[in-house]
Amino acid sequence: MDTNRLDKLRPPAAPGGRMPLREHLRELRNRLAKALLFVFLGTVAGWYLHPWLITELTGPSCHLPGLHGIAPATSACPNGLMVMQGVMTPLTFTFKVALAAGVVISSPFWSYQLWAFAAPGLHRHEKRYTLGFVAAAVPLFLSGAGLAYWVFPKALQILLGFTPGSFSNFLQGDQFLEFFIRMILVFGISFEMPLLLVLLNFAGVVSARSLLARWRTLVMLIFVFSALATPTGDPLTMMVLAVPMTALFAVSLSVIVWRDRARTRRAASAALSPDEASSIDLTPSQIEVPVGSGD
Length: 295
Fold this sequence. Notes:
Layout: H1 3-9, H2 21-62, E1 82-83, H3 89-105, H4 107-118, H5 124-160, E2 171-172, H6 173-190, H7 193-202, H8 208-213, H9 215-229, H10 235-270
Parallel strand pairs: 1-2
Helix pairs in contact: 2-3, 2-4, 5-6, 5-10, 7-10, 9-10
């Protein structure tokens, strides 16, 4: 094919070599389509795993001692807390569990698609920093989610322990799942906040001096946030969230202090140019006269 004809078919480049808006939108569409495809494949895998996932999800709550529900006791749920109401509820509950598992399973793939869309517009050092933040964000979120999974049955036992002896409890499946996912998200996102502070420091928004001057207020705000953000609202859950967040805040503050000091040292060394002549000291110095040379 003629090269001149190919040049006519190719979309014109924007000034400065940037991608035109239409190409950006096409690239975004392709990346989103691939991300949704990976989520769909992960959901299919989650559908096959849903019996095991539901057992792991409801098992700790079904074996809480001292609680009795209205459902008949079974080997899977001895206390009879878990019930489902409605014809479509079992199907929707299973689909929600499979979808949540699919999002988690496919997270490395759809997060790469988002990274691949944003990476061409970043400089080399910005790509390095972004990859570092993503590498730190994933284990932080998983740590928060794991802590929420561990504390959830204990918080549920505390809340349901206020039930009078003449009453029984039951937990609808969809409400139980929604409550559990809310707690996972609250803990996971809360563990990302110290990383956000470091990111703001890299962007020049906050400094170590300003954080050190307000660290007591920030710690108090962490405890207030933990009390308001936890779905259960009990003191145990609040402390389980607030204490690790305070520790992560201390770690992030140490990183920010170290980086600001390193930045100050680099700025001081950069202010001394190797081509700049040093100032000459013209102050006369005293000369000692040797003893015995008075002629």
